[in-house]
Amino acid sequence: MTVNGEARTIPNGTTVTGLLEGLEIRLDLVAVERNGQIVTKARHATTLIEEGDRLEVVTFVGGG
Amino acid sequence: MDASDARCEDRLELGDFVLRSRLIVGTGKYPDFETMRLAHEASGADCVTVAVRRVDFSAGETVLDHIDRTKMTLLPNTAGCYDKEAALRTARMAREMLDTPLLKLEVIADEKTLLPDPIATLEATEVLVKEGFTVLAYTSDDPILARHLEEAGATSVMPLGSAIGSGLGVLNPHNIALIKETLSVPVIVDAGVGTASDVAIAFELGVDGVLLNTGIAAADDPVLMARAMRAGAHAGRDAFLAGRMPKRPFATPSSPRKGRVGG
Are B62 and A26 in contact (CB < 8 Å)? Predict the structure, then answer.
């Protein structure tokens, strides 16, 4: 699977929550897209990541 | 009631959002986060724009660590979007994070000019308004396009003063004034502001707000410039509300004609 365009290997059965915790990033202002669809916060703990998934994990950065 | 009391009541209403300051400032291009934080404070702004990007997994601190969200409203933008679909996707991700509908919509036509794509912006506005977003639409200074954006449901129309990051100020004051005259929604000049007088000029044209980033961030002393921008905003707004004297093609003396020594 890929996260932000980079290939990663993760254990079977990893949920979105598990992935984010493994990445050690702040969880309060993060959005996740799985294969082009937003995974809402409410579904992070129950959405399993599958082989071949393309994930985008975004946050806010400086801008005008 | 003196002028400062009037200003205390002077609010910028954007849909359900009420801002105390008519200046909205950006969070990009600062030399460091501490300078940004101090500049924000000096500007008096209670709303700052932020962009949406991939998380940098190696980064220690982020811009969000330097914004007090109990005092500042975050205004997400769709900066970096060069087509309608990218803007829609970014807008939805921003709303997923913030859980509020406030959004600065920008759909840029090309990297060199950073000019807004009028058709993509209008189409994206229509879609996002239907999805319940409070759309602040960044656009050109074309009054007809501005009207279309208002008709499409934009909560605010934000015409550029000049190109993003150019610091050229308000290049077409006649169009900005015409936009303000034509529209019922708040008009916010966004982009191209370079210095305090640009802000004052924008407010003297009657606009409801000014959004700027580079003008402060790229100044030699951003904190001092932020203070200047704040003063410029107040000066321009007060001057507008005061109702300036008309321009005249001839001179009229300020001192009385009668009673001059020598008759």
Answer: yes
Candidates B71, B104, B180, B258; catalytic one = B104
pLDDT tens digits for range B175-204: 999 999 999 999 999 999 999 999 999 999
Chain B residues closer than 8 Å to A41 by CB:
96
ipTM: 0.94
Q: What is d(CA A16, CA B107) in angstroms, rounded to the nearest whole number?
A: 30
Decide if B192 contacts B144 (C-beta within 8 A). Answer: no
Q: How far is CA B183 from each of CA B17, B142, B149, B156, rounded to the nearest angstrom?
A: 19, 12, 10, 9
Which residues 6+ apart lie within 8 Å of B62 measured at CB?
A26, A59, A60, A61, B56
Binary contact (A62, B30; C-beta < 8 A): yes
Locate B57 and state its tokens. 């997994």
**DSSP of chain A, one letter per residue?**
-EETTEE----TT-BHHHHHHHHT--STT-EEEETTEEE-GGGTTTPBP-TT-EEEEEEEEE--
Strands B12-14 and B23-25: unpaired
- Please give the structure tokens belonging to residue B147: 């009207």
